[in-house]
Amino acid sequence: MTDKVEDHSDTVIDTVSDTVSEFSVLIGGIAGDGINEAGLTVSRLLSRLGYCIYMYYDYPSLIRGGHNFSIVRAARGTIAAHSDRIDVMIALNQETVERHRVRLKDSSFVIYDDDKVTLEGSGLSGCGLPVTGILKEAFALPVMKNSCILGSFARAVGIDWAVLEEVLKKHVPKRLEQNLLVARRGYDRADPFCTLPRNRIQAEQMAGAEGRRQEGNLSRPLPILSGNQAIGLGLIAAGLGAYVAYPMTPSSSLLDFLARQAGRFGLKVIHPENEIAVMLMAQGFAYAGVRAAVGTSGGGFCLMAEGLSLSGMAEMPVVVVMAQRAGPSTGLPTYTAQSDLNFIASAGQGEFPRFVVAPGDAAQAYYWSGVALNLAWRYQIPSFILTDKTVSEGQYSFDLGAAADPGEAAVDLWDGQGEFLRYKFTESGVSPLAFPPVEGQAVKTDSYMHDEKGITTEDAAFTRMMTDKRLLKGRSLAAELEGYETVLCHHPVASSRGPAGDPGPSGGGGVKSQQSQPGRTALLCWGSNQGVCREAAGRLGLIVVSVLVLQPFPVGKVKDALQGVERMIVVECNATGQLAALVESLGIKISDRILKYDGRPFSIEDLLSELGRVLT
Amino acid sequence: MNPKDLLSPARNTWCPGCGNFSILNAVRSVLAEMDGEGYPLERTVLVAGIGCHAKIVDYLNVNSFYSIHGRTIPVATAIKLANPDLNVICFSGDGDSLAEGLDHLIFAAKRNIDITVILHDNRVYGLTTGQYTPTSPMGFKGRSTPEGSFEQPINPAELMLDAGATYIARGYSHGIEQLQRLIKEAVSHRGFSFLDVLQVCVSYNNLYESYNKWTYTAEGNDSGSKQEARRIIGSWNYDRSDVPIPLGRFYQAHSPRFDQHFSMDRPDGAERGRRIAGLLENFI
Question: What is the DSSP letter of B99?
Fold first, then answer.
């Protein structure tokens, strides 16, 4: 294996053939240029051609200035990772060209603002636009330059004007006519680069999975959602009544989203004084029978730890959306990490059960967020949705029809017979709930050790019995989880095509030898690395075992998935291999650790390169 | 309703002579009385922090959330938002709400959330056996300040006036009739009500003699005037034991409440599903 990243010849654009299996666009500029929104427009355009989308958005922690970029990747099948092999670059400034030159192929095409960018001496080819002049002619505002340059992008890759017009009409909130005008000027002045063929595979694959193969659905583009938005919708589907959060990147966009949707779904969305109040408010809601969730990142979660322990003792259901970023402390606020697994698994004084799930894309985020809320209420425990910046702020094509529906699971309610005992001993450990007002009954909850009624006691026998009761709930939860797909196992399939789970024509280059021993080597991952692991493993013919539920840890299912595996490589975005340590403590041997802790997620090429190094 | 019916079977462990008994008895009488006046007992929820004060919720057979130190108000706020028909009363201590949970107290006043805070203000940490609190006078010799504290006390009533509380009063644990009247006023008030109760800790800060000498009931004051409230509240700053200490209602006003702004209409599962599908159209 050489250090050189494998050239994926199948991605080279052929202007006439129908063989494009993936296509990547990078758009870069300064903070304040609207790079995220421009990336979304590119995503929506490519989505309308029938491709599945994943968008990575990279930005520093500041409001104006600094370098921002988005990488939009379009592929025939479901994806959840970005590629460093860029087909088209949209450069709003010279820095974009300089920084990302390394991501370009010989065939790549650059669309750029002629007033700010030159390709002279770079050996690159592309199309420069006199953006300032175009805006001036149209009496347009400087903020409209993106419409102009996206018009050129559409033309360059062969997207019909009508498609772009429809996207802008739908998504430009202000001064639509002027935006359309400058977009049209940009469209008319661009040089063609290729003609991206329409892809019908996405719709067929997704529709086929659910037996929804009506013709009408096939060409319908999918919505593009961030992981945080998918979490919000999954929580709503499972009956969320209140969301409480203090802003902290990368969880803030969930607060913003739910605050905007509060009216539509009858949510109570509160932004209180700090995360301590957040965690306690969630439990006030739970006491009164309202399903509540909170959201934060590591630093904010530190403040929630005392309230978390209260949730454990008082048996107050609460969902914590914990979006990791690179730490310790303030760390890299806008960059990714998976370094809080140990913290989340053990936060809070005392011993009490918890549920921790780490979704790897929007569809999993939607389903498992709903499940997390349902399980929090069924077992009256804290439930974590452990994401990171990659999942929370990444954008994914999302098919509601194909996504599993978490629904709103029923909870065990008091039957109204006799005296209400909030902490009644039962076979499952779960005490039936009642919410005030209940005539003739007092509903009592307590952070102290308590009796069945909820009155403080320091009695030795009650202390032991109540502790056993809480731990029993954990075992009941683990038993129910046996019926869920808590561990995903992907075996290499030699015959399939497309980025998700196949070797593709270019295969793995220097590590092709692995394909002669399929099933012997496995990648073990969790959370956001699922997508990149599946693609890299697909190209190299490796197994991927991704652990979705991290507590209660599905020991049996992980061991089953690893049957026959001789070599196990753990892939994580942290410096110590936290999942690896957990798995090793269970007696499973880890051969290698591929760890990335620079705040950036693995691209396909990053991981292939690391695997090449490890497997040589 | 007979106030005796409100007692739980829990054994009372306060020290004999503790000022908390007065608050317990006053609250029992008020809740029993109000049960027949449009405040049915099952709609009352008591929230307590941690400290001697907090045991009150164990002693009352009333809905309760026995929270953690300093964290009564966020719990109470959410209970009120979840169900505005509930009548939510926080019992808190001076260490509880003025030290550990001061941020929540200020924000509750700022929001004018319709809950009541009854501050068991004994000016000492009792359960941790005698340390100075935010309302202890400068020079207070406690276990953590053996040479005397080097800090001026907070005047919580003044703080609440500035933060936006719409009912502010002070009671004393010797003076049960006045205490009952103030508790009833505070609970009936629509908006954030704050009742500071000079509650004597017989074990670590016995101020009965001083309070009996210096407290008086403010009468004829215009409690609708912020300026007058400021004058009365400022006449004693918890720093001296040789000036008159006013009791009674200092301030009452009516302004928009936080809890008025939240929808109670939540669509059912099927309707939520339709609305999710509809919303997703915006993301295409």
Answer: I
Query: How far apart, in whole angstroms, are the C-alpha atoms of residue B132 and residue B95?
Result: 9
**Dist. CA A496–CA A499, nearest whole Å:** 9
Distance from CA of B262 to the nearest CA of A (A): 6
Residues in CB range of A477: below 8 A, 6 or more apart:
A353, A355, A375, A378, A379, A381, A552
Work out the average pLDDT over A256-271: 98
Q: What's the complex ipTM?
A: 0.98
Cα–Cα distance measured from residue A140 to residue A174, given in angstroms and rounded to the nearest whole number: 12
The tokens 């809320």 sit on which residue? A373
Regions of chain B with pLDDT less than 50: none
- Cα-based angle A39, A203, A497 (whole degrees, multiple of 5): 90
Give A 454-483 residues with CB within 8 A of chain B.
Answer: 454-456
Q: Does the pLDDT at position A541 exceed 90? A: yes
| DSSP β-bridge partners for residue A396 | A54, A225
DSSP-based three-state secondary structure for A263:
helix
Distance in Å, alpha carbon of A502 to nearest chain B alpha carbon: 28
Answer whether A273 sits within 8 Å of B264, measured CB to CB: no
- Vertex A67, ends A65 and A73: CA angle to 5°? 140
Query: Looking at residue A607, what is its pLDDT?
Result: 98
The dihedral built from the CA positions of residue A390, A391, A393 and A396, taken in this order, carries a sign that is positive
Block residue for tokens 């030898």:
A513
Q: Provide the Cα torsion A545, A548, A553, A554; round to 10°.
A: -60
Rounded CA separation A393/A254 (Å): 9
CA angle A41, A43, A47 (to 5 degrees): 120
What's the farthest any 2 CA atoms get from each other in chain B?
74
Tell which A residues from 24 to 63 touch B, by Cβ distance under 8 Å: 44, 47
Q: Tell me: the pLDDT tens digits for A381-438?
A: 999 999 999 999 999 999 999 999 999 999 999 999 999 999 999 999 999 999 999 9
**pTM score, whole prediction:** 0.94
Tell me the nearest-neighbour CA distance from B216 into chain A, angstroms.
Answer: 36
